[in-house]
Amino acid sequence: MRIYKEYQAYLLFPLAMFYWGLVYWRNLFYKYGFFITNRLQCHVISVGNITVGGTGKTPTVLFLARYLQNNGKKVGVLSRGYGRSTKGTLLVSDGTGPKISWKESGDEPYLISKKLDQVPVVVDEDRFRGGSFLMQQFNPDIILLDDGFQHRGLERDLDLVLVNSGDIISDHKLLPYGFLREPWINISRGHAVILTKTNLKKPRPFLRRKLRESKLPIIQSTFEPSISSLSPETPKNIKKKKVFIVSAIGDAAGFNKTVKIMDCFIVGEKIFPDHFNYSQSSWKNVEALSTGADYIITTEKDWVKIESFSISKPIIVIEINVKISPKGRLENLLKDYCGIHYS
């Protein structure tokens, strides 16, 4: 096994160097103005990460959208629409729910459009073009740029970088060895870090050191589970119930820990790759594996892809409620970078 890993590392080394070169020169060209950036006529807040998946961007976008709405702001959401079957500018929702299928929009923008009222959602691989469409059609005060840290072509007023508190040292190696999308030093482009899922795993010493050395303001967030309004089964609680977990997300282990907070008995688990495209047959296999469970438990992101299936077992959909601390630090960031004042 050790020889295999060394051989694998040897084969991946040229790919890693090529990827590093692309990231380095791309960022350098943006830094010195060789690549053009564009600005929209509204405030833009980017919610992104420096690693591949698993940091909780979608729950954080939902939290921020509601937070800003509660403070009297008109909000729009702009996403690339990862994995969608379409191209170009596409209106997912005008603020009254999804107008297209999840396959056309991508699973995460579709979920956002189902969860948010009076918040238009647009997908476009060209974020400036998509943002211009949002401005023309809805004139929001603030656009939340979903997964925007690496998208340098659109200027943002506030760059929030999400980091999973459960990260381990091997995660912080550049792709394909680890999960870093770009070298950690580039986190300094951000304005603040949101350290997510702090109630699930305390950050390791190496991560605390790296965050401290970044000199960025740190906001901590916890992920609190509850039964989603999308759930077909809505018991008051699932305490002591036997459950089988199925998910296709970036941090399946984190979701498992989140479910444990609900004090149920996990009797099994089926993990699919992130953004997995379920089929009726793959779902039947899940049901076969879940024999003996009172409920199948899944995420909201997974549910939007399986809700149209023939389902014979009771299923509960879990939503993630984000709580942040210190609240005043977020308020100060929004005031300093976006001019948002609180009564």
State the gist of this model.
This protein is an alpha/beta fold and 343 residues long. Helices cover 34% and strands 22% of the residues.
Query: What order do the strands of the largest sheet run in, or round the barrel if closed?
Result: 3-4-2-5-1-6-7-8-12-11-9-10
- The CATH class of the largest domain is identified as Alpha Beta
Number of helices in the DSSP assignment = 10
Global geometry: globular
Overview of the structural elements:
- By secondary structure, this protein is α/β, with parallel strands linked by helices.
- The protein folds into two domains: 43-223 and 323-338, 3-Layer(aba) Sandwich (Rossmann fold), CATH 3.40.50; 224-321, Rossmann fold (3-Layer(aba) Sandwich).
- The protein contains ten helices and twelve strands.
- The protein has helices at residues 2-31, 57-70, 102-105, 107-115, 127-138, 205-214, 252-260, 280-289, 300-306, 327-338; strands at residues 43-49, 75-79, 90-93, 121-123, 142-146, 158-164, 192-196, 218-227, 242-247, 265-271, 295-299, 315-325.
- Helix 4 (107-115) packs across helix 9 (300-306).
- The relative contact order is 0.14.
- The model is unreliable at 1-7 (pLDDT under 50).
Describe the secondary-structure layout:
Blueprint: H1 2-31, E1 43-49, H2 57-70, E2 75-79, E3 90-93, H3 102-105, H4 107-115, E4 121-123, H5 127-138, E5 142-146, E6 158-164, E7 192-196, H6 205-214, E8 218-227, E9 242-247, H7 252-260, E10 265-271, H8 280-289, E11 295-299, H9 300-306, E12 315-325, H10 327-338
